[in-house]
Design a protein that fits this description.
The chain is mainly alpha-helical. 59% of the residues lie in helices and 11% in strands. It is elongated, with a radius of gyration of 34 Å. The chain starts with a helix and ends in a 27-residue tail after the last strand.
C-alpha cells in the first residue's frame, strides 16, 4: 500500500508538471525558464525512487518503478543539457546572427551557427508544443540531438575565442576587459561614437572624445580631443582618424594621446620661467602642470646643490624660502574664486609642493650638501631630457621613461613618511 501510494503521488505530480517559458528578447523564440520548484521536485522524487528500489517488497512494482526511474533520469539529463545549450545559444546568437561585423570576420563559423540556430529553434518549437515535462524530455533522440548541438556550439565558441585573441594581440589593452565588452566593441567597431562608452576601461582617464563635425553638422570620425572623467578637455595635437578596424584606430588614439601629453609637457617645461608659476599652471592640463612642477623642483634642488659646491652655503635655504612663498601663493588662490577644475589642479600641486618643501627642509636639517646623498637619491625625481625630449622618473639608481598616459585632473593622496616609501614611478 505504501509503495502504491508513492507511485500514485508520483504519477499525479508529473502529470501536472509543465515547463514555463519566456520569450527571447531579440528573436521572440520561447525559451525554457529556470524553475527551482521543478528541479527540487525532480531531485526529491529521484531519491524517493531509489529508496523504493531498495525495499524488499519491490517485486510487484519493479517494472513501474524502473520506468519512472528511467523517465526522471532522462528528464534530469535533458533539462541539464538543455539549459547549458540554451545559455550558449543565447550568448552566441547575438554575435553570429545579430552582428554583421562578426559575420563578415568569421563567415565559416557564422554559417555553422546558422545550422545550429535552425536545429535549436526546431527543438524549441517541438518542446513548446509538448508542455508536460516528462513527455517533452523523453522524446526519442532528444538527448542525442542536444549533445550534437552542444558539441557544435563549443566549436563556434572556440573559433570565437581564437578570433578575440587575435584582436587582443593587435590591441593588448583588450586583455583588461571582459569578452562581452570586447564583443560589443568589435560589433560597433566602425562606429567610434558607440565605442566611446568603453574608453574608460581601455584608458586610465579618457571618458570620451570630441569629434569634428561634417558639412551637415553631424560628428565625423575624426577625433579632435579627449575629455577626462572630471570633464577636463585636452585637444589633440593633430586630428585622430577613427575609421577602419577598431583595434587599428584605437592604437592610433593611444599614440595620439601619448604624443599630445608629451607635446604639452615639452611646451610647459620650456615656458615655465616665462611667467609666474601661478599664471603658468592654468595654461596646461593638470597632469602636465603637476609633472612639470616636479621636473622643475628636481632641477632647482640640483642647482642649489651645485651652488653649495661653489661656496654658496645658504642656497638650499634660499630655495626653501622660495618654495614657501610659492605655496603661500597657491593657498591664497584656493581661498579665492576658482572653477572646480582649476581648484582641483591647484590643490593637487599644493599636495605635492608640501612634500617637496618637507624634503628640502629635511635636507637642510641634516646638512646635506651633495646631490649624491641618499636622502636626495631616494626621492622620486622627475627629469626632462632636452636631447631626447622625454621625461624620466629617477629613484636611487633606477630610471623609468614617463609613459604619457593621460591621467586627467584627479586628486593626489597626501604623502606621509609611510607612503613615501612606496612611490609610483609614473604617477608620483
Amino acid at each position: 500500500m505504501g509503495m502504491e501510494k508513492v507511485l500514485s503521488e508520483l504519477n499525479s505530480t508529473w502529470t501536472g508538471m509543465h515547463f514555463q517559458y519566456e520569450l527571447h528578447h531579440r528573436t521572440q523564440v520561447p525559451l525554457l525558464r529556470m524553475d527551482e520548484e521543478l528541479i527540487e521536485t525532480l531531485e526529491d522524487n529521484q531519491v524517493q525512487l531509489q529508496n523504493v528500489m531498495s525495499s524488499k517488497y519491490i517485486a510487484h512494482f519493479l517494472d513501474e518503478v524502473s520506468s519512472w526511474q528511467s523517465k526522471l533520469s532522462v528528464a534530469d539529463l535533458v533539462i541539464s543539457i538543455w539549459f547549458e545549450v540554451q545559455r550558449t545559444w543565447t550568448h552566441l546568437e547575438s554575435i553570429f546572427i545579430g552582428s554583421e561585423d562578426i559575420r563578415s570576420q568569421l563567415p565559416e563559423e557564422s554559417r555553422c551557427f546558422e545550422g545550429i540556430d535552425d536545429d535549436f529553434k526546431e527543438l524549441v518549437n517541438s518542446m513548446h508544443q509538448t508542455p508536460n515535462v516528462v513527455e517533452a524530455t523523453n522524446k526519442p533522440g532528444l538527448f542525442g540531438k542536444l549533445e550534437d548541438i552542444k558539441s557544435r556550439l563549443s566549436l563556434c565558441e572556440k573559433a570565437l575565442a581564437e578570433y578575440l585573441d587575435t584582436k587582443r594581440l593587435a590591441f593588448p589593452r583588450f586583455y583588461f576587459i571582459s569578452s562581452a565588452d570586447l564583443l560589443d566593441i568589435l560589433s560597433n567597431g566602425t562606429n567610434p561614437h558607440q565605442v566611446q562608452k568603453h574608453l574608460s576601461k581601455l584608458f586610465d582617464n579618457m571618458a570620451k572624445m570630441h569629434f569634428e563635425a561634417d558639412e551637415e553638422g553631424n560628428p565625423s570620425k575624426a577625433a579632435l580631443g579627449m575629455h577626462s572623467k572630471e570633464d577636463e578637455y585636452v585637444p589633440f595635437i593633430q586630428a585622430c582618424d577613427c575609421s577602419g578596424q577598431v583595434e587599428i584606430w584605437l592604437n592610433r588614439v593611444l599614440d595620439t594621446m601619448r604624443s599630445t601629453v608629451r607635446h604639452e609637457m615639452t611646451e610647459a617645461v620650456t615656458a615655465y620661467e616665462d611667467k609666474p608659476r601661478e599664471q603658468w599652471l592654468f595654461d596646461y592640463p593638470a597632469q602636465v602642470a603637476l609633472t612639470c612642477t616636479q621636473i622643475w623642483w628636481t632641477s632647482d634642488v640640483n642647482i642649489a646643490f651645485a651652488r653649495i659646491e661653489e661656496g654658496y652655503d645658504n642656497s638650499m635655504k634660499e630655495y626653501y624660502r622660495k618654495q614657501v612663498a610659492q605655496l603661500n601663493t597657491l593657498i591664497s588662490m584656493l581661498i579665492g574664486q576658482l572653477t572646480p577644475g582649476d581648484r582641483q589642479k591647484v590643490m593637487t600641486i599644493c599636495t605635492i609642493d608640501v612634500h617637496a618643501r618637507d624634503v628640502v627642509a629635511k635636507m637642510i636639517s641634516q646638512k646635506v650638501e651633495n646631490s649624491q646623498a641618499f636622502v636626495w637619491l631616494s626621492q622620486l625625481r622627475h627629469r626632462w631630457d632636452e636631447g631626447d625630449r622625454h621625461c624620466f622618473a629617477n629613484i636611487c639608481d633606477a630610471q623609468f621613461l614617463y609613459s604619457y598616459e593621460y591621467l586627467g585632473n584627479t586628486p593626489r593622496l597626501v604623502i606621509t613618511p609611510l607612503t613615501d616609501r612606496y612611490k609610483d614611478p609614473i604617477l608620483g
